Structure formats: structure tokens, C-alpha cells
């Protein structure tokens, strides 16, 4: 699938793990691949709404899988709360990106 125009590599982070801008840097690094997938979906005649909904579901399922791996008795408590907040932020970012793609698509077509 990567041979269909999607970058096979994503830029490595330049900031330390605890930097507040690290999340934004990650978004910037993955956006070209995201745009390529959005374009592939459009060419395959998926609506922007279908694409956005599928993307949100995939991100949600991924976060749930990560949470299931981390949710062990030794890791419960404040770490679980931090992870839940992080998952919520990621989901919000995905929804925002999907919304932006939908708006861009509607404005250009």
C-alpha cells in the first residue's frame, strides 16, 4: 500500500519527549501521509464524511487497543488517567484534521 504515493517514512521527532510542542510536531510529520490517504479515498469515490468517520473509528480503536495493553493492575491510577486524557487529545486532533480535510475538499470541489 505504501507504494501508492504514501511516504514510507515519517520524520523523527526533533523535540524532547516532555516538550509541549511535541504533539504538534507529530501532527506536522504525519500530515503528508494523511493527505495522501485522503486523496486515495477521494479517488476511490469515498465521501469526505465516510473517510472522516472511518479515520476517527480507526484512531479510536487504536487508542482502545493501546489502553488495553497498558491497563494492568500495576499501571492503574494516575497513569491511567493521564493516558485517558492523552487518548482524548489524540482523538480530538484526528477529528479536527478530518474536519479540515472535509472543509478543504468542499471548498476545492
Give a brief outline of the structure.
The chain is mainly α and 109 residues long. It has three helices and no strands.
Structure description:
The radius of gyration is 16 Å and the shape is globular. It contains three helices and no strands. By secondary structure, it is mostly helical. The protein is about 70% helix and about 0% strand. The mean pLDDT is about 80. It has a domain at about 45-109. Helix 2 packs antiparallel against helix 3.
Q: Topology, pairings included?
A:
Layout: H1 22-43, H2 48-70, H3 78-108
Please give a handful of descriptors for the protein shown.
109 residues; mainly alpha; 70% helix
Q: What is the CA-CA span between the terminal residues?
A: 26 Å
Helical amount among residues, as a percent range?
A: 55-70%
- Give the count of helical stretches: 3
Radius of gyration: 16 Å
By secondary-structure content and strand pairing, the structural class works out as: mainly alpha
Please give the number of β-strands.
Answer: 0
Q: What composes the largest sheet? A: none
